[in-house]
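Ticket #4471: structure output looks truncated?

Reporter: J.K.
Steps to reproduce: submitted the chain below (286 residues) through the standard prediction queue, then opened the result file.
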Amino acid sequence: MSEDYLKAPFDPEGFYPALALIRTPHHPQAVNPQPGPDDYFGTGLFAAEGGTLFTVAHNLTEDGFPDGKLLRWVWVCCYSAATRDWTDSHLVEVDPNLIEPKLDAAILLAPTRAPATFRLAADWRLGDSVVVLGFQPDSSRLSGFAARHLFCEIPTNWPVAPFDLKEIHGEPVLRLGMTFRSQQPLGRGISGSPVLNRRCAGSPAIAIEKAIEWSNPDELRPPEVKTTALCWLSEVIARLPVMQQPALPPKCGKKSGLYWLAVKIGSLLIGLLVVVSLLLLWQQQE
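Returned output as attached by the reporter:
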């Protein structure tokens, strides 16, 4: 059954109403602020009908770093069926209590009903085909932006080692490999994009994108897409009023947990074999 979904061409338009364009003000102190062409931008996804929206923390800071000084507010632009574009803009205050710099994750509460919401899931496994869907500049659009997507996969060798689960500074990360290295490079605005699992019916969101690590052209290593799994957001979600909390599975995929357990058991067995081999070698030398 899962292969049938992968054979069908990916159509991003069905997800547009649940996607949110985040515009960070270039002049946040303006008396009568309006979205402008100089605004910085990012992506978010609606997770609940009441306006609960997931994005990355660095979309909401003055310097673009997860632990930077927070902006007081941002524009959340919703999809308009009338314009078929993200032109329905709402000024949304940034709540410091809903920011988690260690995950580079954040929650916004838009003062509007979401046009649509993404189905959320923690059901992912190694080798899954996924799609990252986010915004890039497009001067032909009324909003100035258009949704673009990247085809990726969860590597079958993830994590290749325990340290692969986190960055050097301790930030948890779920790494994706790009399916096609020749895909058009996407810039900063894709941060906060939903990661959609094509193996599952309806392609639910399983993570949010936070960075793309491009390798040098002469390297054989393909680019890596760094994401935060949605199930890691449970502590941040718990800070929301109960009625605004989206339904989210409590842990990240049974098969992923089994894989990590297998990695640990395998490491112990290898260590045991090394010790036994050294003991046998020592006995032979005597």
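Triage note (M.O.): checked the attachment and the full token line is present. The chain is about 15% helix and 30% strand.
Status: closed, working as intended.
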